[in-house]
TrEMBL record:
Keyword check for Metal-binding: no
Full protein stretch here: 196 to 486 of 494
GO molecular function, one term: cyclic-guanylate-specific phosphodiesterase activity
Entry protein name: Diguanylate cyclase (GGDEF)-like protein
Membrane as UniProt keyword: yes
């Protein structure tokens, strides 16, 4: 087919593009069946308190194990699901499954919040907040145990609807987190109006902390901004002890990253909490002797 190439010139046939389109169609059909075929699962990554290093919450991260192509990253299939109109269905499954897992943790006496990522199109759904409320009720969970993570860029896309949805989430008693903060284009005025309860410093700033004065300044500014707005400040993508120490000094409330644990299964998470350490070959030691 005809299309514009990167430099804006018309090219008559781009085999790479055709191949990509074929792959997309193939994937979309498979994705439609993925829920029923039980190819989707949730992994959980802990958020830890920056003072006590205790686990306070678990973020649900969606995984798709394609029967032929293996693991497909959410960065690939979430946008695909959105354009194919499948994200509503996937998103409802994620909320339901997160509540089911959270209820099982609660039954074991573990007091942890569960955090779920909400996509751009989910934010447009009229019944999103009602659906979350119903799921929580069905599983006997309190709303203050549940966090919705919405990326800064999505929150800033349709500020008016986002603000209204944030308000409904907060009045239900949910926590609302602005994810990947610092990479979008927030106007500070819009940020001030958003009734969020948490700010997550994007991992791009965390990654460069030890080597870049600029990254340190930006991270420290984001932390102060969050604190000044009375938000809980979380840093994502913490991989080294050096980053961890700097973020603690800056006053981050919670930390998340491979230093503590990779995303793991619900069962592994239970084991990790009960033993106070990561147990699973994939996870790094979660040690009290970190310092
Ligand atoms: P996110 O919500 O910002 O999640 C953090 C991502 O960073 C996850 O990637 C996680 O595995 C990865 N990560 C965590 N700690 C570290 C670290 O220390 N170093 C590095 N390099 N990476 C780390 P993942 O699971 O591939 O998810 C990517 C994005 O896809 C998520 O970003 C989120 O925006 C989206 N996503 C994942 N699950 C869902 C879902 O159920 N629904 C929706 N709408 N989006 C989802
Ligand atoms: Mg997130
Ligand atoms: Mg994030
Ligand atoms: Mg991120």
């Amino acid at each position: 087919g005809a299309g514009l190439n990167g430099e804006g010139k018309v090219c008559v046939y781009d085999p790479a593009f055709a191949e990509e389109a074929r792959a997309q169609a193939f994937f979309v059909n498979d994705l439609r069946a993925a829920v029923e075929n039980k190819e989707l699962r949730l992994l959980f990554q802990p958020k830890v308190d920056a003072q006590s290093l205790q686990i306070t919450a678990a973020e649900a991260l969606l995984r798709w194990q394609h029967p032929v192509r293996g693991n497909v990253a959410p960065a690939v299939f979430v946008p695909m699901a959105e354009s194919a109109g499948l994200m509503g269905m996937l998103g409802r499954w994620v909320i339901e499954e997160s509540c089911r897992v959270a209820a099982s943790w609660r039954a074991m006496g573990l007091r942890m919040r569960v955090a779920v990522n909400i996509s751009a199109l989910q934010m447009q759904e009229e019944d999103l907040v009602d659906h979350i409320a119903q799921c929580l009720e069905r599983h006997g969970l309190q709303p203050n145990r549940f966090t919705c993570e919405i990326t800064e860029s999505v929150a800033m896309q349709h500020t008016d609807t986002a603000t209204a949805t944030f308000e409904r989430m907060r009045s239900l008693g949910l926590h609302v987190s602005i994810d990947d903060f610092g990479t979008g284009y927030s106007s500070l005025a819009a940020l001030r109006r958003l009734p969020a309860s948490e700010l997550k410093v994007d991992r791009a700033f965390v990654a460069d902390l030890e080597h870049s004065e600029d990254a340190r300044s930006i991270a420290a500014s984001i932390v102060s901004l969050g604190k000044a707005l009375n938000l809980k400040v979380v840093a994502e993508g913490v991989e080294t002890q050096g980053q961890c120490e700097l973020l603690m000094l800056m006053g981050c409330d919670e930390l998340q990253g491979f230093l503590f644990s990779k995303p793991i299964s619900a069962e592994e998470m239970t084991g990790m909490i009960n033993s106070g350490s990561a147990d699973g070959p994939e996870s790094l030691p979660f040690s009290e002797s970190l310092f």
